[in-house]
Design brief:
Helix content: 25-40%
Strand content: 15-25%
Distance between the termini: 40 Å
Number of strands: 19
């Protein structure tokens, strides 16, 4: 039977190497204070010290390094951006859109290079992503994705046929990683270079040049808010980003014969073109880690540990896994977990300098592993007063509109989540693009 499943415990936590990091000991002073010890905050901390080796950098974290999305995600280091190329062109112009997408493409390789340079073994394999094309509507989605890349003059995904997977649209710009190993390694590397990380320290308020916590005040010339979904709990940020839950399951290690039947090689990730997103990867120890959306949003952007699990969504994921990969349908599920992702109102991630030396970065909508590295490097340039190609990317200074006040927010968001599931059911029944999905797109809701 094997060991029991621990509900809510991410697979990747088994990989995080941790130190005993005490809370903030009281009021202190720093050149840079960073809120959040996840990918964005830790890459930013390392970047600041690369640019200003004598800077004092303090990171405050409510739980432990990697507690948030950085330790719970699907382990895709991809060039995905939640906003389509056409929409980026509409908002920022063609040249800016190309620069943004090119920077993300380059960042997939940069994460591998930088992690290796820091001596972090985080199971990085650039195996690419297979998007399964098993219906007429999926083919339409694949063709739209190809057109999007071609329109920006970027390397286009390619059609492939793989035993087990069938027809796929293959995008080489994705690497499989262990997010726990990466975020744990970044925290150790940052500390070894002089960054002070204080865990168990909850931020209550961010003021110009000042971070108020439950253990004291950090006064700093520059403040970086890198709390992703948890930024929604901070005064002044509550409507900048919305916490929407994404959940995952992981199987026991699968036999090589099972993997041959499935058709996934080591390092490859997989998804399809449904509206209620699913995503998976073959882990370094031969598990199938598989996740997706569908959990409801909670009134007032509240975040609670018990919402990391949902019997309904886990059942949906197990059904989807079995439908896509029948050879793995009987595999024992060893881990079930989840957590909130940060969603801006227009789905557009951003790096935003605010008044009083504050910079906010985030809103990755679940595509944050590579984007957080790019954001961290960009933040490091901004807070050290450098003008570089990164600081003029179109997401710098882009201020997403605020989310609607409650109860409009909870009603609208949960209606969209439900409608995405309806759209998938509609397409399965009709074999044609969903009218529901079309309506959501026209309304700017997805």
């Amino acid at each position: 039977m094997g060991p029991p499943v621990t509900p809510g415990r991410p697979l990747w936590l088994d990989d995080i190497e941790r130190r005993d990091r005490p809370p903030l000991p009281g009021d202190t002073r720093a050149d840079v204070c960073i809120v959040g010890a996840g990918f964005t905050g830790l890459w930013a901390a390392l970047g600041v010290l690369e640019r200003e080796p004598d800077a004092t950098v303090v990171v405050v974290e409510q739980a432990f390094a990697g507690f948030g999305a950085s330790g719970r995600n699907g382990g895709w280091c991809s060039a995905l951006f939640p906003v389509s190329g056409a929409e980026l062109v509409r908002r920022h112009g063609r040249d800016a859109a190309i620069r943004m997408r090119t920077a993300l493409h380059d960042t997939v390789d940069e994460v591998g290079r930088a992690g290796a340079e820091l001596g972090i073994d985080f199971d990085y394999v650039k195996g690419g992503t297979h998007s399964l094309v098993r219906s007429a509507t999926a083919r339409l989605g694949a063709e739209a994705e190809l057109e999007d890349a071609v329109a920006l003059g970027l390397p286009a995904p390619e059609w492939r046929e793989r035993a087990g997977l069938g027809a796929t649209l293959f995008d080489p710009q994705c690497a499989r990683i262990s997010p726990g190993k990466l975020v744990g390694g970044l925290a150790l590397a940052a500390e070894d270079r002089g960054v002070r990380i204080h865990e168990g320290t909850r931020v209550l308020h961010v003021h110009p040049h000042e971070v108020l916590t439950d253990h004291g005040v950090v006064r700093a010339d520059r403040v970086v808010v890198a709390a992703e979904a948890w930024a929604a709990r901070l005064p002044g940020f509550r409507r900048r980003v919305l916490p929407l839950y994404s959940l995952m399951i992981a199987t026991e290690p699968l036999a090589e014969s099972t993997w041959a039947s499935i058709g996934l090689e080591h390092g490859e990730t997989v998804t399809d073109f449904r509206h209620l997103l699913v995503y998976g990867q073959r882990t370094a120890d031969d598990r199938l880690a598989f996740g997706g959306r569908g959990a409801r949003y909670h009134l007032g952007s509240t975040i609670k540990p018990e919402w990391d699990v949902s019997t309904r969504v886990f059942a949906h994921l197990e059904r989807a896994l079995g439908e896509l990969f029948p050879a793995a349908a009987a595999a024992r599920i060893t881990h079930r977990w989840g957590g909130p992702i940060g969603v801006p109102r227009n789905w557009h991630p951003a790096v935003v300098p605010l008044r009083g030396g504050i910079v906010w970065a985030g809103g990755y909508v679940g595509d944050g592993v590579a984007a957080a590295n790019l954001a961290g490097r960009t933040v490091a340039d901004l807070v050290t007063d450098r003008r570089t190609p990164l600081t003029v990317l179109p997401w710098v200074g882009h201020v997403p509109p605020r989310w609607e006040p409650e109860p409009l927010r909870v009603l609208g968001v949960n209606a969209v989540v439900a409608a995405s599931g309806v759209a998938d059911a509609e397409e399965r029944l009709t074999g044609a693009p969903s009218r529901v999905a079309g309506a959501l797109s026209r309304l700017g809701l997805r």
